[in-house]
Design a protein that fits this description.
Elements: H1 10-20, H2 29-42, E1 46-52, E2 56-63, E3 69-71, H3 77-80, E4 87-89, H4 102-105, E5 112-119, E6 125-133, H5 141-183, E7 187-192, E8 197-200, H6 202-208, H7 212-215, H8 220-223, H9 229-242, E9 248-256, E10 262-274, E11 277-286, H10 289-323, H11 332-362, E12 370-374, H12 375-392, E13 396-402, E14 407-412, H13 413-429, E15 436-444, E16 449-455, H14 479-482, H15 490-500, E17 504-508, E18 516-522, E19 528-529
Parallel strand pairs: 13-15
Antiparallel strand pairs: 1-2, 1-6, 2-3, 4-5, 5-6, 7-8, 7-11, 9-10, 10-11, 12-14, 14-19, 15-16, 16-18, 17-18
Bound molecules: adenosine-5'-diphosphate (ADP).
Adenosine-5'-diphosphate binds near residues 456, 469, 476, 488 and 515.
């Protein structure tokens, strides 16, 4: 006996069969009707709709047979699904594949078999509609074609289940999406490329005070009077050029309600591409005047800072060259004035850099480039960088590092230096002339971290202000503190960076006076001792 081969696409075939969810289900009239008809049409004692499972054939509909399944390895249908054509066996006793098959030699004593394979929509063959007789017989071409027609009908019925289910799933999906859309606070419109509104959610109805049917078909420009669809398209095109992500345009503008009142909004436009069709999703959020002012202020600061940085950097370069004598000798008076200008230029640049960092922090775009950094040399280089600055204030720096020489940590070198120099320069600024700033570092076995502290002999921080000085633009209000200049941004940036490292930053003021700023950096699994 020849066992049926396993088709090349067996896994896909079985997946398709399982997807039908039909195995071991109750008989159904829509299939029994077909097998019954086939029994009469072909005068066949047995007619089956057989589905080929992993190692059995299971009958969804059967006429003239009592069992509901038989093993796959002795099945005729297992052979029939190997080909698209009908498997036609006029006399099994004369066919070497089936002659000694137990279904031929014993019950139900098959002699004649004709099985038309059943396909699902993907093309996989999952079973057959088959005719069986206990006597050998022939079937004309026309009759075989009829069998194929009936098998097509079975296929339609099998796939109809899937289609029905798929439609139900899509409907449920659509309903969920609709509920979601109608419950978001933003007004959401879809708009075509000519600016015509295609659909609107419930919030859009509220915002524009119009029902969705009226909004559909309206020109976007009538709802958002200060923008045009061409402008949206142009902005999205620019965003596509700048960025790899989904093009998106954010803009502060106004929406006009049907009573003519204009309200401030935050607009977000994204592009929706479906095959050859393009549409826009326009999402509109009502914002308060205060929020609008705040956003405009932030945008203004960011534009000004960007525009300032380049000219300032070149002024600093030029001043440095002149002070250094590159443009010829200058008088002592001019040298003095240019040095002041250079110093102030330096302060402006660091203020602009702080504002840019702050903007990046707020947008979550502060970038880090972690490297394996030797902590001892990172601390030493931050201290040596600050030496000249400290000398200008008549302050000396003292370093005590109690760390294994080779302790490395995976952190961004420039950002760690930024935090350390900020703490050191603050400590220097607030120290009395002739004072000392002590920078120390030690391993904390208990918390598996490195504690870096910067201690000064300055006025200290009042207890109620210790938390607040890490907020942006916070400066102590004592006349002493204000006279030191600065932007009030350094510590808030230092906190954001330290937290990005997974560490902690804080301040303590010992009883003997002064303040101790500390950084507690966790020793991650990346930390190495080389
Ligand atoms: P900036 O120093 O640029 O004003 P920071 O964010 O670095 O901004 O510091 C915020 C405020 O915290 C300072 O203005 C100052 O009032 C206070 N401060 C910071 N460091 C010290 C210190 N070592 N001693 C006393 N006050 C300090």
């Amino acid at each position: 006996m020849q066992e049926p081969d396993i088709p090349g696409n067996e896994a896909e075939r079985l997946r398709a069969l399982r997807l039908l969810d039909i195995l071991d289900t109750a008989p159904e009239a829509r299939f029994d009707r077909i097998t019954h008809l086939a029994q009469r049409l072909f005068d066949a004692p047995i007619v089956l709709i057989s589905l080929i499972d992993t190692d059995r054939q299971w009958f969804k509909s059967r006429q003239g047979l009592d069992v509901c399944e038989t093993p796959r390895n002795i099945s005729f249908c297992g052979h029939a699904i190997l080909d698209d054509n009908i498997l036609y066996v006029p006399d099994a006793t004369r066919d070497p594949r089936f002659r000694d098959n137990p279904l031929v030699t014993g019950e139900p004593n098959i002699r004649f078999y004709a099985g038309a394979p059943l396909h699902v929509t993907s093309g996989a063959r999952i079973g057959t509609l088959c005719l069986i007789d206990r006597r050998a017989r022939n079937l004309s071409k026309e009759k075989l074609a009829d069998l194929r027609h009936l098998a097509d009908w079975v296929e339609d019925e099998l796939n109809r289940v899937r289609l029905g289910e798929a439609t139900a799933i899509i409907r449920a999906h659509e309903e969920r999406l609709r509920t979601l859309l109608d419950n978001v606070a933003e007004a959401i419109l879809t708009v075509n490329t000519t600016g015509q509104v295609l659909s609107a959610n419930a919030s859009a109805e509220d915002m524009f005070a119009l029902p969705a049917e009226k909004l559909s078909g309206m020109d976007l420009h009538a709802l958002l009077p200060r923008i045009t669809i061409e402008q949206c398209a142009e902005q999205l095109r620019q965003d596509t050029d700048d960025d790899q992500g989904v093009p998106k345009w954010n803009y502060l503008t106004v929406a006009r309600r049907m009573n003519g009142i204009e309200i401030p909004i935050n607009l977000t436009v994204t592009m929706l591409r479906r095959q050859s069709e393009t549409a826009y999703i326009v999402s509109v959020r009502h914002i308060s005047d205060a929020e609008r002012l705040d956003l405009m202020k932030r945008e203004f600061i960011s534009i000004v800072s960007h525009e300032l940085r380049t000219p300032l950097t070149s002024i600093r370069g030029a001043l440095g060259l002149v002070v250094g004598g590159a443009a010829g000798p200058i008088s002592d008076k001019a040298d003095e004035m240019l040095t002041i200008a250079e110093r102030n230029c330096e302060r402006l640049i660091s203020l602009v850099n702080d504002i840019l960092d702050l903007e990046k922090i707020e947008l979550g775009r502060l970038s880090f480039n972690p490297v394996n950094l030797n902590l001892r040399s990172a601390i030493e280089s931050a201290v040596s960088f600050s030496n000249e600055y400290a000398a200008g204030f008549g302050v000396s720096l003292k370093t005590t590092i109690r760390l294994p020489d080779e302790l490395c940590m995976r952190v961004d070198e420039a950002r760690l230096a930024q935090v350390l120099t900020n703490l050191i320069s603050n400590a220097v600024k607030f120290s009395p002339s002739g004072g000392t700033v002590e920078i120390s570092a030690e391993l904390r076995e208990d918390t598996q971290s490195v504690l870096i502290s910067v201690r000064d002999q300055g006025p200290g921080i009042p207890p109620e202000m210790r938390e607040h000085i890490f907020e942006k633009f916070r400066q102590l209000e004592s006349p002493h503190a204000l006279s030191k200049g600065g932007s009030g941004l350094g510590l808030s940036i230092a906190k954001a960076i330290t937290e990005a490292f997974g560490g902690d930053i804080g301040v303590q003021c010992p009883a003997e006076g002064g303040s101790v700023f500390f950084l507690d950096l966790p020793i991650t699994s990346d930390a190495v001792t080389r």
